[in-house]
């Protein structure tokens, strides 16, 4: 490797990799394969710098390789693609997610290898000779095209990871997973819910439980304080503690069991109901709404689509979610489930079971019911059926349909691929719930 500066830099990269490796081992423990790689890096560096035979052999190897510049270029591309891709797949660096110490180990080892390939054994005039040969090679055009495609791919990948960590409406995409990793699960409390820690029971405290699925937990809302449950708690003040008992994907069959297991019994329950709460009856049936979306069947292609944002975005967001046929099929299957007498009888039984449980414990209930935000009118027959169950039991109902129908769709949803409620919609929801909740809180205080 020519020049003391490059030799020193190469040795420094090896030392930094080892230093971070020791730190990771002390803090978390480093695997045996990682230690073997670090040991190999150290031994190779010492041999290449201080052992004349090893230095001579490695110099000859790299000189011969550079004598075939098209092959050398291809190997550099393969090295860079493998290095960057493994980093992305293993660690998935994204906006909002800090780079870990073990990633620095990987980063410095990668730079160490890249500097070796670029500079070790190079000599004056070698670059000009390589350029001359490449100018005559029929492979040069192919390599330029391949390099351009890879640069565009990884730049697009970086852009999506830095600026497009967001949700989709169905939870299929890599972006959605990393939104949960960075903003969803990252804000869970000690009980496993995306909420602040619940206050302990004290005399005069009214405990309000918001029970539901992704609509209640704030799917797509980066700051949990922008969700309607937190806005409601802020407005009610110290007299109340609003606890969120909601998880993305929960259906009606799961909600009551989790409320029963909750360590604090609420005085008021707000049941946030979206039409897909009947999904537990539809899974793996001909009526399953998710069957409208196609998943990648080939294992290798599926791995590529799931682990890289660019193909994931193209396949799911552009090909799947923008398909009007698929979207209409999803909404139609969801609304149609309420016309199936067998499904609806089971769902109605579970809803009444929830009301019975609350009545037996003198817990007041409020039904917050959501239409499909992109098909409010089409949702109404199903919404009406659910409302009638609660109205027959004298449970107050907050129907978001007439409220949301006053505003343009763009204000109401998280993004063009996600029909979950936006921050603005969560604010409207808190506005609609507040007077009913205050009335119940005041009535409880008066008693």
Account of the protein in words:
Helices cover 61% and strands 9% of the residues. The chain contains 19 helices and 7 strands. The protein has a 5-stranded parallel beta sheet with strand order 2-1-3-4-5, with helices on both faces. A two-stranded antiparallel sheet has the order 6-7. The mean pLDDT is 93.
In short:
With 447 residues, the protein is α/β, with parallel strands linked by helices. The protein has helices at residues 4-27, 32-50, 52-66, 69-91, 101-119, 126-136, 140-163, 174-184, 214-217, 228-236, 252-261, 299-307, 309-320, 324-336, 341-360, 376-392, 401-404, 409-412, 423-446, and strands spanning 206-212, 240-246, 268-274, 364-370, 397-399, 413-415, 418-421.
How many β-strand stretches?
Answer: 7
Strand order of the largest sheet: 2-1-3-4-5
Enumerate how many helices there are, as a single number: 19
Number of domains: 2
Element pattern in H and E? HHHHHHHHEHHEHEHHHHEHEHHEEH
Radius of gyration: 29 Å
Mean pLDDT: 93
Report the biggest beta sheet as strand number plus sense, adding barrel if it closes. 5 strands, parallel
Query: Any idea of the CATH class of the largest domain?
Result: Alpha Beta
Measured between the Cα atoms of the first and last residue, the distance is 85 Å
CATH topology of the largest domain: Rossmann fold
Q: How does the helix and strand content classify structurally? A: alpha/beta
CATH homologous superfamily caption of the largest domain: SGNH hydrolase
Low-confidence segments, ≥5 residues, pLDDT <50?
A: none
Second-tier CATH architecture of the largest domain? 3-Layer(aba) Sandwich
Percent in helix: 55-70%
Please report which band the strand proportion falls in: under 5%, 5-15%, 15-25%, 25-35%, 35-45% or over 45%.
5-15%
Query: What general outline do the C-alpha atoms trace?
Result: elongated
């Amino acid at each position: 490797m020519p020049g003391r500066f490059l030799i020193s830099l190469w040795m420094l990269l090896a030392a930094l990799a080892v230093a971070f490796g020791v730190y990771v081992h002390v803090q978390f423990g480093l695997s045996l394969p990682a230690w073997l790689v670090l040991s190999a890096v150290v031994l190779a560096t010492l041999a290449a710098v201080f052992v004349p035979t090893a230095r001579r052999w490695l110099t000859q190897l790299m000189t011969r390789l550079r004598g075939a510049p098209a092959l050398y270029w291809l190997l550099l591309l393969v090295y860079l693609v493998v290095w960057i891709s493994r980093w992305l797949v293993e660690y998935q660096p994204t906006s909002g997610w800090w780079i870990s110490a073990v990633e620095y180990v990987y980063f410095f080892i990668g730079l160490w290898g890249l500097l070796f390939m670029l500079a070790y054994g190079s000599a004056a005039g070698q670059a000009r000779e390589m350029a001359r040969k490449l100018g005559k090679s029929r492979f040069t055009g192919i390599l330029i095209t391949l390099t351009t495609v890879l640069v565009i791919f990884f730049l697009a990948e970086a852009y999506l990871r830095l600026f497009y960590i967001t949700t989709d409406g169905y939870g299929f995409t890599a972006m959605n997973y990393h939104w949960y990793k960075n903003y969803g699960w990252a804000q869970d409390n000690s009980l496993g819910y995306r909420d602040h820690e619940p206050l302990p029971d004290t005399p005069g405290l009214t405990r309000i439980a918001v029970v539901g699925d992704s609509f209640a937990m704030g799917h797509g809302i980066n700051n949990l304080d922008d969700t309607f449950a937190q806005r409601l708690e802020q407005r009610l003040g110290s007299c109340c503690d609003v606890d969120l008992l909601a998880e993305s994907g929960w259906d009606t069959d799961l909600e009551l069991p989790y409320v029963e297991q909750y360590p604090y019994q609420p005085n008021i329950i707000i049941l946030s109901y979206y039409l897909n709460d009947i999904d537990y009856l539809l899974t793996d049936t001909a009526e399953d709404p998710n069957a409208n979306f196609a998943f990648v069947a080939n294992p290798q292609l599926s791995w590529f689509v799931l682990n890289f944002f660019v193909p994931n975005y193209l396949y799911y967001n552009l090909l799947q979610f923008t398909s009007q046929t698929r979207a209409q099929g999803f909404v139609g299957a969801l609304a149609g489930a309420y016309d199936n007498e067998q499904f609806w009888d089971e769902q109605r039984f579970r809803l009444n079971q929830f009301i019975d449980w609350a009545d037996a414990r003198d817990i007041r209930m409020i039904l917050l019911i959501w239409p499909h935000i992109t098909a409010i009118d089409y949702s109404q027959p199903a919404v009406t059926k659910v409302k009638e169950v609660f109205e027959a039991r004298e449970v107050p109902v907050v129907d978001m349909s007439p409220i949301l129908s006053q505003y343009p769709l763009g204000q109401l949803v998280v993004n063009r691929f996600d029909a979950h409620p936006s921050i603005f919609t969560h604010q409207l929801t808190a506005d609609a719930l507040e007077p009913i909740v205050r009335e119940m809180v005041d009535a409880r205080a008066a008693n």
